[in-house]
Design a protein that fits this description.
Layout: H1 33-43, H2 49-62, E1 72-76, E2 98-107, H3 110-118, H4 122-125, E3 130-137, H5 141-145, E4 151-162, E5 165-178, E6 190-197, E7 205-216, E8 219-229, E9 231-232, E10 235-236, H6 240-262
Antiparallel strand pairs: 1-2, 2-8, 3-4, 4-5, 5-6, 6-7, 7-8, 9-10
Length: 267
Amino acid sequence: MRLTSLTLIPALLLAAGCPQSTSPATTPIPDDTDALMRWVWSNYTAATDADLRAAVEKLHVAVNGATMTQSLGGTLGDIQSADLETVGMQEQDPSTATGLLLVSAYDCTVDHAEKITLHPHQDELYPGVYESYARTFESDVGAYRARTVATAVWRLETSGSLIGSRYTMQYGGGDRRLPPVEGSAIPGTILLNRSWMKEPADFDEDYQIEISWERAPGKLIHAWADWRQTRVGTFDNDTPTVLELILSSMEDWDAQTATLCREMRPE
């Protein structure tokens, strides 16, 4: 995949009308792509499996997941301080962060995508991205793999460079797995992955939510929202060129993920 398959467009143009959910939600489940990504971020912990599944089903329609043939990229509206309460960061002002969205389709299963996200040495899977990477699980990952709990939680310390800027950061993160539901619009397993910078570092802000589901067996849709504040020389994340570079790096990450899936790594 190349950046030319992406179009940097306002999030409003990515929105599409979807049927209203009939399940009770922690807060009302919105209809447009922008608000759906924020809703899943904010309700990752508190929402029921049914509500999260309803949100992902709306997202699947909004991004034309059933028929999409190339990646979609664009900007998102700002994440709000209230959205950060779920990770204890509500005192942080996220107004300097710019939201980006990448939606990709490639051959993979949710189960293998989960193996990738759970692998403790991401630097081995994504060479050249990190100078250092150390993950510590803060929950019983064995119980998560055994399906006796629905979430895995970790923290990590990492350093490296992004489009010419060095960084050292501490992150919180984890996976949440929604089990299959026969007869639903997306009947298979849905995987959520959320991460956030725990304190300001070389980048002041970074909040990410990833959603993976299969539109058909072995045909994965990966929706990735990243609200990030960064600088490249004298340019910041409000500069279109910088946004294109960040989207390009996100697309490169997805391309490597597709390669890992094709090569069945990790085992």
